Amino acid sequence: MKTYLAGSLIVAAFLLAAVPASAQDSGTTTSQTATTKKKDGKNDQPVDIEADKMEIQDTENKAIFTGNVHAKRPDVTLDCDVLVVDFVDTKQADGTSKTEVTNLDATGNVVIVTDKQKITGEHAVMDPRTDILVVTGNVVLTQGKIVLRGPKLNANLKTNKMDMTGGRVKGSFVPSSN
Predict the structure, then answer these.
(1) How far is Cα 58 from Cα 49, in angstroms, rounded to an integer?
(2) Residue 162: which of 96, 114, 109, 106 has the closest Cα?
(3) What digits encode the pLDDT tens for the residues 18-70?
(4) How far does the chain reach from its first CA to its final CA, in angstroms?
């Protein structure tokens, strides 16, 4: 059974377009700032990430944030236990290099909050190149008084369509009073 809900799911538009080139590994909270590209191509929305620890694995093109991870952009937040960011360096037309995120993997107590929705689950994966988001593990999507529950949420952020799959799906819909 699938439940479709079209709407303004902007969850993953939030998630990183750049990864810091270097980081320190210390016992204190790590804080990094990156910027994301808006649809018009401008890099003007900062993403602030705080975690208990951050590790860059340059040879694997990976950044790992662990412990109380909190990523925030002006319009969306992501909280989780572990956030793994895969990236590649791409050459630009002007000869410079740019770090591009290829995959985001959030694990443990995942909470994604926008101005219209809250999504919780145990695991979330996003491919920023395709704008496909998959959230699994006791997924709960809340939008106003509407609440959807299911094992797996698939969201296409380009088309603003999503479906709940993977087993029994439950929804609570409250009619509008207009």
Answers:
(1) 19
(2) 114
(3) 333 333 333 444 544 444 444 444 444 567 889 999 999 999 999 999 999 99
(4) 30
Dump strand ranges (E) for the chain.
3-4, 30-37, 43-51, 53-57, 62-73, 76-91, 97-114, 118-127, 132-143, 146-156, 161-165, 170-172
Q: Rounded to an integer, what distance in angstroms lies between the CA atom of residue 74 and that of residue 142? A: 20
For tokens 């410079």, the residue is 96
In Å, what is the CA distance from 102 to each residue of 75, 125, 129, 151? 22, 11, 7, 25
Q: What is the model's pLDDT at position 114?
A: 85
Residue with tokens 């008084």: 145
∠ Cα 76 78 79 (to 5°): 145
In DSSP terms, 123 is beta-bridged to 107, 136
Go through the domains of the chain in sequence order and give each one's CATH number: 3-172 (2.60.450.10)
Q: How far is CA 159 from CA 9, 10, 57, 162, in A?
A: 9, 10, 34, 9
Q: What residue type is assigned to position 128 of the chain? A: P
